[in-house]
Write a structure and sequence with these properties.
Structural class: alpha/beta
Helix content: 25-40%
Largest sheet: 6 strands, mixed
Distance between the termini: 35 Å
CATH architecture of the largest domain: 3-Layer(bba) Sandwich
CATH class of the largest domain: Alpha Beta
Length: 193
């Protein structure tokens, strides 16, 4: 069995995990990403991006790339069984706290591809077909057992990121990782950025 180390282990290469990895990498944090899927998703479970998401991309210097691959929409109408049920009109948005006063239509698969390109250009690759099978808390971090078709390994991390906390055993849900507070200034590992 092989052992690896990192500061943060990200479990899942969906939009949340990839954005977390991008933000952590921007802060100089050593990140590893695993995902049990063999390949990146080609489907889209989301088709729009809001202002806050665009602001995160802007903080990474990626908003122009995302905007170039999406379609800016200032209003949306909702129809159910052919009848107009309402809508959103961003043309009347007067919020001054964001430069993105619209919705961006962009498939989730495209958004993920943009983040994957950024991470790969910085030497971070998703370990595909790698499934988290066990997670143990340690005095100074966590230890994850990861299995793939070709190997079984243990990854030691100071912290880990996984969106679905409820899937962990109850003992882990009570650990110090679950209760760790993240301040308004983005903290990860032992460094702040």
């Amino acid at each position: 069995m092989q052992n690896e180390k990192c500061e943060v282990l990200v479990v899942g290469a969906g939009p949340t995990g990839l954005m977390a990895a991008c933000l952590l990498e921007q802060c100089g944090i050593h990140v590893k990403i695993i995902d049990k899927s063999i390949s990146a998703s080609q489907e889209s479970r989301a088709a729009v991006m809001s202002a806050r998401s665009l602001e995160l991309f802007a903080s990474l210097g990626m908003s122009e790339t995302v905007l170039a691959q999406g379609a800016i929409t200032r209003n949306i109408d909702f129809f159910i069984s052919g009848r107009h049920q309402g809508g959103l009109d961003y043309a009347h948005c007067t919020s001054v706290d964001t430069p993105f006063r619209f919705i961006l239509m962009i498939p989730q698969s495209r958004t993920e591809a943009i983040m994957l390109d950024r991470l790969q250009s910085r030497g971070i690759h998703v370990q595909r077909g790698a499934e988290l099978v066990a997670l143990r808390t340690l005095a100074n971090g966590a230890e994850a057992d990861v299995v793939s078709a070709s190997e079984q390994k243990t990854i030691e991390a100071i912290y880990h990121w996984r969106r679905r906390w409820s899937q962990y055993r109850p003992a882990f849900a009570r650990s110090r990782f679950r209760r760790r507070k993240i301040s308004a200034k983005f903290f990860a590992g032992r460094r702040a950025c």
